[in-house]
Design brief:
The complex is a heterodimer of chains A (287) and B (414). Chain A has 287 residues and is an all-alpha fold. Chain A is 76% helix and 3% strand. A two-stranded antiparallel ribbon of chain A has the order 1-2. Chain B has two domains: 205 residues, Response regulator (Rossmann fold, 3-Layer(aba) Sandwich), CATH 3.40.50; 158 residues, Rossmann fold, CATH 3.40.50.2300. The longest helix of chain B has 24 residues. Classes of the chains: A mainly alpha (287), B alpha/beta (414).
Chain lengths: 287, 414
């Protein structure tokens, strides 16, 4: 009994790590129909940035989250405005190509600056846990889940009630009507990418705290975010949370029943089932 | 007097002739282009300089190069009373196994090379050796030791590497002396990790250990907490992890997060690399690593001297401390040198026969025996332990005096 309770906790907490990584991916995809193949590498870059901030400014990674968010927000705005906006209206293939290229360039620049050696963000609490009712709650994973819930609420409030949030939603429903209503689409897109870059970077901090990473670690993160986004439903504020939890729990329980070697089978099998039965995701509206 | 056009023709013809003569000289395996020596022996090596294996490829490249430098500095290889310079012809296989094969083919047919040292990584060696065998020219592995390379009844493939399945033997011998009884095994799903794990588990079972847990996870796993929860239920004395660097780090981090304690933890990959204690800090203390060579080992030979002298020379030449990848590569190159000397000629068939008849050799990295299938046996593998942020040799023999931190302190007592 204790084993299964702990495995359930492990799955839920892993869901937090998966979900926080998918928030940004889902937003970009939902609003701009942009599948960002550099997503995982953005997160790795954020992890490196956090290491630098810790080493040079002595700022704790969790306290550094706002700073990392702002830096990536600004960087993301510029990348979208000057780079991705140039191809986004052509077709999906062009944006895939561009973000794939960005991924390549970023990963190799990181090898240049940080070498190919593995790093990890080391803080006294990074490997510690809280004990509750005889169950272990690793601090970083628990805080990540908390962050995911708070960020999901904030994102929902922002998209639902703020002016720029409504602009983003209007644009996601159709660029032409939005433009006719006086919205400046390139700026709305840049704002969306800025926001999602900040969110991606936040996920990157937690990834760096819970894993060892190298410049080449981005690929699996992008794939994970992709699966969670489809599971939860593209472009929904709560999708990443729901998708992350479903995937986290199923992987944890499945890896104990069938063995960890079948985790990928479970993950992608689930993806297949969802694509067939609910192509718009668990929370997505019928298309 | 020649007209300008005829002059140009004549010059062109002589240039072509000259090129042919020169290229003829260059492609010969031995040639008289050095005044003080009888010629040069060229050895081909399709080693990765780019791609995913570039890092280890460089270590192998440097290992081969160090042997080349030392032999040439000593006046060359003494073969049948004459001195020959050695020259290793490196070509980049870009980390791709099919390139390792096609480059070996190219070096054989176009560059007339008849002796080969292997690329890095078992997969690449597997494919390059098929070409060497086809042309009946010897290739010695200085970059990997998967058993599958040696179970094809090949006659021209030799090695300086032990089987991957032998890596964990020393770790288990050490744990045995400490009274460890129950073990949990976790391994990644690539060829090397599977072979090393299987060898380790077989060795454990035949040496009185109780394997209470064994599982395979996909490479690049980012969460193994549930496996650690399962392992905690069985409360084994030691955890043996066979995978990649990032998974070794992940297992230590998550074992601490889940407060799963072991008397001992050992990995095949991770602790031998300086970035392991750097990444984990004090949580890395006391963790064991299976190694193939360390500078502390008490062996020596005529080319490099002792293991320590090898390490010093390497540091002096390349500016960094040697890791076992380089030492194993240097040993493979040394084997080639020994065989050529024993054969009394760089003729590939004679060198092959000499390699097959070398028997037990004593090199700076240890004593081992060349087996009938070209693999080696008897190499005593060292074990390292992280102590004060450094990898210290704690096995075999009297090195066990250095062993400490047993049982490992609980995570919350560190």
């Amino acid at each position: 009994m204790h084993l299964w309770l702990q495995v359930l906790v492990n799955g839920i907490l892993q869901g937090g790590i998966l979900g926080i990584s998918a928030l940004a991916f889902s937003l970009q995809w939902g609003v701009m129909n942009l599948i960002n193949l550099a997503h995982g590498t953005f997160q790795v870059l954020a992890a490196y940035l956090t290491v630098l901030i810790l080493q040079h400014l002595g700022l704790d990674p969790l306290l550094a989250v706002p700073l990392v968010f702002i830096i990536f927000f600004l960087g993301g705005y510029l990348v979208q405005f000057f780079l991705i906006n140039r191809v986004i209206s052509t077709n999906l293939f062009m944006t895939l190509l561009l973000t794939y290229g960005m991924d390549f360039v970023l990963a190799n620049l990181m090898i240049l600056f940080f070498t190919a050696d593995y790093k990890s963000i080391n803080t006294p609490y990074a490997n510690s846990s809280w004990q509750l009712f005889g169950l272990q709650f690793p601090i970083v994973r628990s805080v990540a889940l908390l962050f995911l819930i708070v960020l999901s609420v904030l994102l929902w409030l922002f998209l639902e009630y703020s002016r720029p949030g409504r602009a983003i939603r209007a644009t996601s429903m159709g660029t032409e009507p939005a433009r006719l209503m006086g919205l400046k689409i390139p700026h709305v897109y840049a704002l969306t990418f800025a926001l999602s870059s900040g969110l991606a970077a936040t996920g990157g901090v937690f990834f760096g705290l819970s894993n060892a990473f190298s410049p080449a670690s981005g690929g699996p993160l992008t794939v994970g975010a992709f699966v969670v986004t489809i599971l939860g439903g593209v472009g929904t504020s709560w999708g990443p949370l729901v998708g992350g939890l479903i995937l986290g729990v199923l992987d944890a329980v499945g890896s104990v029943i069938f063995g960890p070697t079948y985790v990928n089978v479970i993950t992608f099998g689930l993806l297949l089932v969802i694509l067939v039965l609910r192509p718009n995701g668990v929370l997505g509206r019928a298309g | 007097m020649l007209k300008p056009r005829k002059l140009a023709k004549a010059l062109g013809a002589s240039a072509v002739a000259l090129t042919l003569i020169l290229s003829g000289c260059g492609t010969a395996t031995t040639s008289n282009n050095t005044s003080s020596t009888a010629g040069t022996i060229t050895i081909g090596a399709p080693v990765a300089a780019t791609g995913s294996l570039a890092n280890e490829g460089k270590l192998v490249h440097d290992g081969y190069t160090l042997w080349e430098n030392v032999v040439n500095k000593q006046g060359g290889l003494l073969v049948d009373g004459k001195r020959y310079k050695v020259n290793i012809n490196f070509q980049d296989d870009q980390s791709v196994a099919t390139n390792s094969a096609s480059l070996t083919e190219k070096m054989y047919t176009q560059d007339n090379i008849r002796l080969f040292l292997s690329p890095y990584a078992s997969g690449n060696i597997f494919s390059a050796t098929t070409v060497a065998e086809k042309h009946k020219v010897p290739m010695i592995s200085g970059g990997g030791g998967a058993k599958s390379i040696f179970t094809r009844d090949y006659k021209y493939v030799f090695s300086a590497y032990p089987y991957s399945g032998d890596y964990l033997g020393s770790v288990l011998d050490l744990l045995k002396t400490q009274g460890v009884k129950t073990l949990a095994f976790l391994h990644a799903d690539d060829v090397f990790s599977k072979e090393a794990d299987q060898g380790g588990e077989d060795y454990a079972k035949s040496h009185g250990f109780d394997v209470v847990y064994s599982a395979q996870y996909p490479s690049n796993a980012s969460d193994l907490t549930s496996q650690l929860t399962q392992i905690a239920q069985k409360a084994p004395d030691a955890l043996i992890g066979t995978g990649h660097f990032q998974e070794a780090v992940l297992l230590v981090k998550e074992a601490k997060q889940m407060n799963v304690n072991f008397k001992s933890i050992a990995f095949t990959v991770g602790p031998t690399m300086p970035s392991f204690p750097q990444t984990l800090g004090k949580d890395a203390e006391g963790i064991l690593g299976a190694s193939l060579w360390t500078p502390d080992l008490p062996y020596k030979d005529d080319i490099f001297g002792t293991s320590k002298e090898y390490a010093d020379l390497y540091k002096q030449t390349f500016g960094v401390n040697p890791d076992y990848h380089s030492a194993m590569a240097s040993a493979a190159a040394e084997l080639m040198g020994l065989a050529v000397q024993k054969a009394g000629s760089p003729d590939p068939q004679k060198v092959r026969d000499a390699l097959a008849g070398l028997g037990t050799v004593h090199l700076f990295d240890g004593d081992f025996t060349i087996e009938a299938n070209g693999s080696i046996s008897g190499l005593k593998l060292p074990v390292v332990q992280i102590q004060d942020g450094k990898a210290v040799t704690v096995w075999p023999g009297s090195f066990s005096q250095n062993f400490k931190d047993f049982p490992l302190p609980a995570w919350n007592k560190r």
